[in-house]
Amino acid sequence: MRLRPRFTAALALLISLPYVAACAPAQDATAGKGGHARVAEKKRERAECRIEVDRFLVTATCHNPNPTVDRVALHIECAQWWDIDTDSRPKPVFPAETLRMDGRCWKNVQSAWVSHQKPAR
Q: What is the pTM of this model?
């Protein structure tokens, strides 16, 4: 059976389309409308926090380089079931301010993290 040149070209194109579509980078619906800029903007609105754990002591240091206020709270999960996990009250970190929060467990710390909230208006 002999294939025509047009049919061969069309077949080659159809076979290559799924490969090209699979290799193309995925774009979200807002990409054309500056969606990537909005994501980067949201990340910049948060204070930068560093957490240090020393066995049973936790220290979180948050610095806000942004012109907006960020509210941060320290959360500590203790390793032992009888040890009480703690969540601090949200505290505002004003522009160009550094805030330090401390907490502890009686024995060992399993995990610690800082949550961010928008300031109440």
A: 0.62
